[in-house]
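Quarterly update from the structural biology core.
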Amino acid sequence: MTKVVPAIHVASPEEYRDQLRVVRQLTSRFQLDVIDPDFADSPTVSMTEIEVPIGMQCDVHIMSPNPGRYMEDALALKPEMIIVQYETVENVEEILEAIRSHEVRVGLAINPETSIEHIASLVGLIDHCLIMGYPAGRAGQTFQPKVLHKVAQVRQLKPTIEVGLDGGVAEESLERIAKANFDVVNVTTYLFSSQDILGRYTELMEVFV
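Predicted structure, tokenized:
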């Protein structure tokens, strides 16, 4: 069964608390997006200004050329997992090993243009491969269906890995995404833009049974 995980992509502590209040009514797992200004012009809340409530599982997705600079703040949130974006990190293997040393699950996110062959040597170091449905950095972009074949490719390399999708969930893409059989599907705009968030989440749960 695919897990539907809300992704919180906000610029202020107030927005974070508002969305987290809603998320807690839906599920115990969420993703927090953290974007470095050098990565994309899409401000996100500082991790030093927020907390993760006891009992909530937080996956932190760090989008930065230098994710190491965010590691201390991320670890202070006591996350279940830290995910780094592959494309802009030079010392990515070192970063993945550093995350593992803190006994936190390790995730690696890849953009649509990055092939699984590019990360084949790293798959053994990670617990979670996050396949981006569109380039990381800004929510609400158009889904790129070409990424769906990557699910099977990753599992061929490591059958036990958790494979997630982030970005592009919309009414017109739901059926194709469901057929791809992801372990996790992260949802931001399609969920939080709804006038009935609980109803929308229930709809998603039914689609991804």
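The chain is about 30% helix and 20% strand.
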